[in-house]
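Much of what follows relies on a compact textual record of a protein's fold. Each token is a code from a learned vocabulary of local backbone shapes. The record below shows the convention in full.
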Amino acid sequence: MSRIKNSFAALAILISSALPALAFQTAAESVVVLDELSNIVLIGKNADMPLPPASMSKLMTLYMVFEALDSGRLSLQDQLPVSKEAVAYRGSTMYLQTSDRVSVEDLIRGVVVLSGNDASAVLAEALSPDGTEAGFAALMNQRAKEIGLTSSNFANSNGWPHPLHRMSARDLAVLASKIINEFPIFYRYFSETEFDFRSRAPDNRFNRNPLLKLGIGVDGLKTGYTQAAGYGLTGSAVRDDRRVIFVISGLSSAEERARESEKLVNWYFLQFTGKTLFEPNETILEVPVFMGSKSRIPVSSPEGVRVSVPLTARGGVKAEAVYPRSVEAPISKGQIVGELILDIPGVEESPRFTLHATEDVERGGIGTRIKTAAILLFERFILNAVN
């Protein structure tokens, strides 16, 4: 069935300016800025290059732990044993001992706040099909493909240096978005600034995320550092009902990571403004119906159409609705019948929103079918005559 592109001006939105819309400069090796309103990447520097992610890859372990909690396989109160393999990890740890039994909640906080390599391994072994961290890594790779991480490969649960352990900045941003949106009840852990586990290392109780205490809206997620990876941060910030997710890696020091990350957050909120083009369930347009009790049906976006637009944009946002020449009845309310594609000046990626039917349309009676058949025969006759 052929498809129709229906172009129309959604809104003439913004301020004219000759300045470039996207001019952020950084020394980072890899950068991604993901706008949650429109779910597009605003900045991508080596966005799909698989690089050593260091502890930022612990987000994949946490995602799978949150899935297990959500399904009931784990509970926050479950007490897990600590293996000698987990205790053997160095670097950032919770200082676990093989005599410990630790709650899942404390282990999560140990991973998020303390970046505990040992805590990650304990959780991994609990969820592993064969009880080993290697078995869990294989499970990570399988799950990563299922959720759309296209440039990731895991060799362990915590980002310990390994030549095959890689993630792209885009994959980290996608993963962060999934954690935030799918597990809001667990996302609160990422904003905790300190966790003193049994007073074992009071000086090691502070969250390594340098932006949490700055009051700029940052509420997560995870830092990372190894010699091969450099200093990195997968972060998120929210202001005025707008959220940005960013990944920055390959920096030379913790100070540079903090400075560049803060600059990136402020750049987003100062250089972009949020615009609502259509409210949730507001009729956007009507599309033709084939063989239905009605000839047209209104469509909308259940979540609404909101986007971030550069303040330096020249001209307005343009919208293009793409849908079949006619949607065949019967049609159910909520059924996807097309797509709305936006063109935002100064932004390379085009935000896309699915269009849903706002009501049911039953299949038409015998009269409708005869009329439709006649129209189709006439169209074919004209087409053949032209050809």
Q: What stands out?
A: The radius of gyration is 25 Å. Residues 8-21 have pLDDT under 50 and may be disordered. The longest helix spans residues 366-386.
